[in-house]
Design goal:
alpha+beta; 206 residues; 10 strands; 4 helices; four-stranded antiparallel β-sheet; six-stranded antiparallel β-sheet
């Protein structure tokens, strides 16, 4: 028997919720954070592709661009990178008509809610372009400044960086690791995916 965990978030402003298909649970936005819980049996590879190509656009339409008021909106997106486990997917976004652009991080995998319940979910965190570029600069600067400390003791010495509701732990464990914590997600931002995201984000907005 399929076991689907449904999480319901009660929001300010009386936001309504809608039920998706039987294979998914309810996903409701809280500000710029929309977390959707899915059936454990769902193919991880298929969901990651859907997140990258379609769910990210749905999020952009609903929570970044917002109501069109009868206008036709033009916007661009491009998937930048995802790690081998699909735990963190990065998407570039631009809409000149609402003057918004930047980086959309899609978290995907195990999520622990405030009651300690573990389930499979995905969620989006939008970071405006300048803020995203500054964040990369800060992380890179801290890694370089504390390189000796990090290499001194594998999986023991850690750098902790906080950016609003995002938390980063940088450490060495068979190589440099960046672990990201956000709203119940805990994922490793693999080095290749991290570098590719940073490089392609800058190039895309040149």
């Amino acid at each position: 028997m399929k076991k689907i965990i449904i999480a319901i978030f009660i929001l300010l402003h009386n936001l309504s919720f809608s039920q998706i298909s039987a294979g998914e649970a309810v996903g409701i936005a809280a500000g710029v954070a929309a977390i959707t819980f899915i059936a454990v049996e769902t193919s991880k590879k298929e969901v990651a592709k859907d997140i990258s190509q379609f769910r990210s656009k749905e999020y952009i339409m609903n929570y970044i661009i917002g109501p069109t008021n009868g206008k036709t909106m033009l916007f661009e997106t491009e998937s930048l990178a995802s790690d081998n486990s699909a735990g963190l997917i990065s998407v570039a976004f631009n809409c000149t008509e609402v003057k918004k652009s930047g980086l959309l991080l899609a978290f995907f995998g195990d999520n622990i809610n405030e009651h300690g319940v573990l389930s499979t979910a995905y969620g989006f965190r939008y970071i405006p372009l300048k803020e995203a570029q500054d964040l990369f600069d800060r992380i890179n600067k801290e890694k370089e400044e504390h390189k000796k400390y990090l290499s001194g003791n594998n999986d023991v010495n850690n750098l902790y960086i906080e950016h609003k509701d995002l938390k980063f732990i940088i450490y060495n464990d068979g190589g440099e690791k960046v672990r990201v914590f956000w709203k119940g997600f805990q994922v490793v931002w693999e080095k290749t995916a991290y570098k590719r995201t940073e490089k392609r984000l800058d190039k895309w907005f040149e």
